[in-house]
Amino acid sequence: MSLKHNELSSRAIAVIPGGVNSPVRAFNAVGGTPIYVAAGRGSKITLADGRECIDCCCSWGAMILGHGDPEVAEAVHCAALRGTTFGISTPGEIELAERLVRVLPAIEKVRLVNSGTEAVMTAIRLARGVTGRDLILKCEGCYHGHSDAMLVAAGSGVLTAGDGAQVASAGIPHSIAHDTLVIPYNDSAAAQRAFAAHPGKIAAIIVEPVAGNMGCVPPLPNYLQTLEKLAHADGALFICDEVINAFRFHFGLYSDLVGLHPDIVTMGKVMGGGFPLAAVGGRAEIMDALAPTGSVYQAGTLSGNPVAVAAANVVLARLEKESPYEKIARYTKAVAEGIEAAAKDANVPLCVQRYETVFTPFATTQPPRNLAESKACDASLYARFFQGMLARGVYLEPSQFEVNFISAAHTQMDIEKIISAAKETLETL
Ligand SMILES: *Cc1c(COP(=O)(O)O)cnc(C)c1O
Fold it and tell me: Which of 65, 67, 173, 284 is the most exposed place for a label (fewest CB within 10 A)?
């Protein structure tokens, strides 16, 4: 589409597998040449070919204050001048941990890591170490990073126990896949059957409370409460993977909003302030099982990195003070309803599922409740919608199996532009 992007893409493909450092950036789900970003400012990104787009990815929600925020940039600049890493603890890490513990009821202690993947890896090892059990129960379509144990998802909506589990990547030993049980999301009965089939054997159930990685799929009423009860009745831990959810809907965890009591919580994205920074936290007795107090090993050369921590401290302080959530939710609702109305007018089978500050346009008429329903959506229609929006200066997620994000930097004008781009696009489909 753009000569500049074609040229960058050829250079990238020659030296980086698929030309990208994370697969979805290759646009496999939507076709066309991937884009490259030169810069970001507020709600906008400027592409390498000079075009400007309204950004609805916001680095998968991490950039909740928008791009290039001056206060964050200043904090990062000052932190970098003081030294970018020491391999020795710094006061900023304590400040961040204190803030998380103060604000999040489920978290008495927290360890900082470099990515959501690492946070989940640690959570799983911790659950296994604390319970002395091996099996992990996860929901189909929930993404928990790219560690071996979490890249297992059954191909069907049926409960698959060990042997039947389908591995979502090559290179994962059967012995590891065998210990991950997969159930459909939003299906309490399947969870009940899993615990009944493996009494006293499941270390933890891990769930994305508001699923974002099969597109936006909110939990059905009481579903998460049932998972928590089933886990605790069996002596298993309940892990909420809030890498997207934490600090996205309000200044805290989704699990606080609905009265859940997760034993372990993982956070990233917003919480990381736009840097490779994530966290795993929980009750003190569980967290103290980590080395050096406990026997569950976990470490990191760059963990608690001072530059990343400086950014996170500023972002979280700002979110607490400014609480942009109500505005973001209002804008998200307007965008979702605007796109949906435009689809109706244009007679295009597309609906928008949203929860508070996140949304996904699904090329179908019935909002999906699980992976099977999400997968049944029309991928080629979504691809054409995505390309039409991109051509009109709106960057949506390059796949239906993702959520879109509005930031505090988006304006009423951005929202109107997104909706009018959707109208124009949908009329051509
Ligand atoms: C993004 C994400 C992860 C992985 O985080 P990375 O920082 O990409 O490793 C884990 N869990 C959930 C729910 C996520 O959305």
Answer: 173
> In which region does residue 83 sit, left (phi positive, over 0), alpha (psi from -120 to 50) or beta (all else)?
left
Q: How far apart are CA 374 and CA 198, in angstroms?
A: 29
Which one of 179, 241, 263, 414 is the catalytic residue? 241
In this structure, which residue's CA is closest to atom 6 in ligand 1? 116
Q: Which among 48, 46, 44, 45 has a CA at the least distance from the CA of 34?
A: 48
Q: Which atom of ligand 1 is least distant from the CA of 213?
A: 15
Q: Which is catalytic among the residues 269, 325, 395, 414?
A: 269
Q: What residues flank ligand 1, with Cβ below 6 Å?
A: 60, 115-117, 120, 143-145, 208, 212-213, 241, 243-244, 268, 278
Q: Any idea how long the chain is?
A: 429
pLDDT tens, residue by residue, 124-182: 999 999 999 999 999 999 999 999 999 887 332 222 333 445 677 889 898 888 999 99
Q: Which secondary structure element, helix H or strand E, spans residue 413, and what is its range?
A: helix 412-428
Q: Is 414 left (phi over 0), alpha (psi -120 to 50) or beta?
A: alpha
Cα–Cα distances (Å) from 246 to 194, 207, 263, 409, in that order, read: 27, 13, 15, 19
Q: What is the pTM of this model?
A: 0.96
